[in-house]
Write a structure and sequence with these properties.
Layout (H helix, E strand, L loop, with lengths): L2 H8 L21 E7 L18 H9 L1 E3 L2 E2 L5 H10 L18 E2 L7 H6 L4 E6 L18 E4 L30 E5 L2 E6 L2 H4 L2 H15 L5 E6 L20 H23 L6 E7 L26 H4 L3 E4 L8 E3 L3 E2 L3 H9 L14 H4 L10 E6 L3 E7 L2 E4 L2 E5 L15 E6 L2 E4 L15 H18 L15 E2 L5
Parallel strand pairs: 1-9, 1-10, 2-12, 3-13, 5-6, 5-9
Antiparallel strand pairs: 2-11, 4-20, 6-7, 7-8, 10-11, 14-15, 15-16, 16-19, 17-18
Helix pairs in contact: 6-7
This protein binds magnesium ion.
Length: 490
């Protein structure tokens, strides 16, 4: 750690001007926080993580000005679960959210759970959510009821609408579940303000979200704020504005990533213009890996195994960049294990806000952000999927995958131009021990050579089953909580 950054730790974390003699010390101003969360963007999708045929210059600059994590895992490899994890600091199964909630869901994130904005509100933050929510579309579960002062966005995924992959209306075939979905509601506050009916409508989403984010930042120069910017892209169906259509060498997916990069640039510019960049922590990450059966409309895992919907690294490991001038040294690379569930306790530590009262699973990764090489706050990670299946356990570089039925993309021709290819949702994956240092692609099972490692990881799994349960082993788990639930009166 450089002296500059060690000093910033010793003198307190917050930027404050030096008072003249006789003046009282100014109250430390906690940093603003901008959390940008992508949808289905893979580990290999930024140029600073190896993306091909397009560039993401604003994100690459963000990486060079702060820290780039290389072993950062999402809470779970699917939308709603992942979002429950990042916003509560818990494994999603602890708070009763699994899979992706459909437009007819009667459940949502339990309003009794404490979210990042609720934690930061104890330190008087202004809070906004912009973009995809997907933690319950019913009013009781929308962002305004979960700690956010304002909200603009879609309540669930952008493919949950009565439109086919080619942009034509869904067929009236009763087997086509899309046919029964309403047009996508664009929600402002708690109210629907517009219906998103066509791909042309969707091509405006990234710009709409960006304009709202810029407005929110510009309106809150004087008080600390938390902006949760959850893009609908690059989840299919892909849509891009005319500003970026045809601009990449990698078709629609590259165009969409270029527009996302533009959006990040607009946010960074707005922070600079308002003199807020020095006291703002910007975090950029993704909810899960790429939906690989969409072929050229899917992202890249950068060589990791499987993708979205699988607990192998391709489904779970995501890019993560953080910039916080004066605290995070430019050009830091962190190869230690960390997760989206660690963001909540880290922000609580930075802002000196109390942690949620209920048990959480995240750990404070501030020492990693500050470049402390000796720190290793997250030793283990539990890879749950489906409703409550413990599919793998990780400790350090070792990952033990349990025998489980799960998704595989292997053996199927990928789709193209917006249409999906097939996947097998019930492939019987075998037990395997992988050394992620030597074998990040999880190709070489070495369990027979390291029985002591297998035994140690199985012990961690046994403790997890007592705590959180495991559908594969038919274990209940003592410490799971219920989602919010609306009883159907009619
Ligand atoms: Mg997703």
């Amino acid at each position: 750690m450089s002296n500059l950054f060690r000093n910033s730790l010793l003198t307190g974390l917050f930027v404050s001007s030096v008072p003249a003699i006789g003046q009282s010390l100014p109250k430390p101003q906690p940093p603003n926080v901008v959390l940008i969360f992508m949808d289905d963007m893979g580990y290999g999708d930024l140029s600073c993580y190896g993306a091909l045929q397009y560039k993401t210059p604003n994100l690459d600059r963000l990486a060079s000005q702060g820290v780039r994590f290389t072993n950062f895992v999402s809470a779970q490899a699917v939308c709603s679960a992942s979002r429950a994890g990042i916003l509560t600091g818990c494994y999603p199964n602890r708070v009763g959210i699994s899979g992706a909630l459909m437009p007819d869901a009667k459940i949502g994130l339990n309003p009794d759970e404490e979210t990042i904005p609720e934690v930061l509100k104890k330190r008087n933050y202004k809070t906004a959510a912009v973009g995809k929510w997907h933690l319950g579309h019913l009013r009781e579960f929308l962002p305004l009821q979960q700690g956010f002062d304002e909200y603009l966005g879609l309540p669930y995924s952008n493919d949950m609408w009565p439109v086919n992959y080619d942009g034509k209306p869904a067929s009236a075939d009763k087997n086509d579940r899309k046919f029964n979905y309403p047009p996508l509601p664009l929600i402002d506050g708690n109210e629907k303000v517009r219906e998103i009916k066509t791909l042309d409508d969707q091509s405006e989403l990234t710009t709409l979200y960006t304009e709202r984010a810029v407005r929110f930042i510009s309106q809150h120069k004087k008080e600390p704020f938390f902006l949760y910017m959850a893009h609908s892209m690059p989840h299919v169906p892909l849509a891009v504005s005319s500003k970026f259509k045809g601009k990449s060498q990698q078709g629609m997916y590259g165009d969409v990533l270029m527009e996302i990069d533009w959006s990040v640039g607009e946010i960074l510019k707005t922070l600079e213009k308002n003199g807020l960049d020095k006291n703002t922590l910007v975090i950029f990450t993704s909810d899960n890996g790429p939906w690989l059966n969409f072929g050229n409309h899917a992202g890249s895992t950068g060589g990791l195994r499987e993708g979205k919907g699988a607990s192998f690294e391709g489904g779970q490991r995501v890019p993560c960049l953080m910039k916080w001038p004066g605290h995070i040294a430019p050009g830091t690379v962190c190869n230690k294990l960390a997760s989206t569930i660690d963001i909540l306790p880290t922000l609580a530590s930075i802002t000196q806000a109390p942690l949620p009262e209920k048990k959480i699973d995240g750990v404070n990764i501030l020492p990693l952000m500050l470049g402390n090489e000796a720190a290793n706050p997250r030793e283990t990670f539990l890879y749950y999927y489906r409703k409550n299946s413990l599919e793998a356990v990780r400790k350090g570089d070792w990952k033990l995958v349990f025998a489980h039925p799960g998704r595989t993309y292997v053996g199927f021709r990928p789709g193209a131009d917006g249409f999906p290819g097939s996947v097998n949702e019930n492939f019987q994956h075998e037990e395997g021990l992988y050394d992620l240092r030597r074998d990040p692609g999880e190709r070489y099972d070495v369990k027979e050579y390291y029985p002591e490692v297998v035994a140690e990881l199985k012990k961690i799994a046994e403790e997890a089953r007592q705590d959180l349960g495991d559908d594969i082993q038919k274990a209940e788990g003592k410490n799971r909580r219920e989602p919010g639930r609306i009883e159907t009166a009619k």
